[in-house]
Amino acid sequence: MSIEFSDSINKTGLIEMLDQAVGTDNNKFPLTQKTAKINLALDEALSVIFKVSKSGWNFDSNSNEPVISNDIVSGTRTYDFSKDSGGNLTLGIIRVTLASSDGIYSVIDPVDPLTDPEDNVSGFLDGQDTQGTPTKYRKYGTTISLDPIPNYSKTSGLKLYIDREATYFSASSTSQIAGIDGLCHDFLYLKPAYEWARDHNLHNTETLFRDMQLAKQKIVERYGSKEKDRPRRMSPVIHNCK
Prior knowledge:
Layout (H helix, E strand, L loop, with lengths): L13 H9 L8 H22 L14 E6 L5 E3 L9 E10 L5 E6 L7 H8 L5 E2 L3 E5 L2 E5 L1 E2 L3 E11 L21 H14 L5 H20 L18
Parallel strand pairs: 4-6, 5-8
Antiparallel strand pairs: 1-9, 2-7, 3-4, 3-9, 6-7
Helix pairs in contact: 1-4, 2-4, 2-5, 4-5
């Protein structure tokens, strides 16, 4: 079951569960501080998921697709990909597709002028600024450069499929849900609840610590067993009857 950030009516949101666990309210434990603590717990959950997940498991919580579209401008080699349309920072590029002059998209290949064979990256090094339909790109900082340099313009002709930062909670969030497995949402309030209990010498500190550790282990188990777009296969059990 997914847990909303706040549900003041049913008292079943992350904020309300945190208050219930440590006996606080917005006067004792200000809402802005609880929000910050929950976001830090989300950061830790994402860090665990990155570490244990298989095949680049996607837990994107944004409502728009993780794709940045740029217009191709004739004669322009370099394009920025620092943020998506929602202002979320780009963490990495998964794939780049580019439209030809007739509008057909195809995947182009990444190259590294520092390590790839010279004949594969000569267009970036020879100073000739050859133009045509790009077939490869190099990444530098928050930009990509195309080779050859496009000799045509195309609206939204460059599409980057990306990893991006999480969508965090704000103090005004209500029904927002973290973009991770709903069965792992309890970690998001248990971690700040334990930290509050520890810092204020509450009697249930050890219980909250155990619950937090169990919730963290659940994240490991849930994401460590998931593989993205990988079909399950049945393998025969072979008995040696010799």
